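Batch job 17 of 40 flagged for manual review because the log was empty.
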Amino acid sequence: MSERYPDEPGSTDDNTSRRAAEEIRPKAKTIRARVWELLKRVFPRGLTPDEGAGILKIDFMSVRPRFTELYKQGKIEKTDDTRRTSRSGKLQAVYRWKPSTIGDQQALFE
């Protein structure tokens, strides 16, 4: 895992994982900021990563990790909602914007 995770994309020791993290790194901050803004806009409702990807029209494989990064940064939270079914048929957590993070918006773009 990257020493800068969750501020930068993480990876495992696998070469494929490292290459994927390097490839998304230039786009990750922008996608993370778009996810955060989307969750802020739909608040108090929450979204699953797959729902967010569909609304943003970004590949779900690029969006799912950004939800996890924002969650680990404390910028979004899991809701008490029941998990919803993802595109793969598995249950996904529902996340929402954390109101206490409004002043942290600038940090998303740094």
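Reviewer: the log was empty due to a logging misconfiguration, but the result itself is present. The longest strand covers residues 76-78. Unflagging and moving on to job 18.
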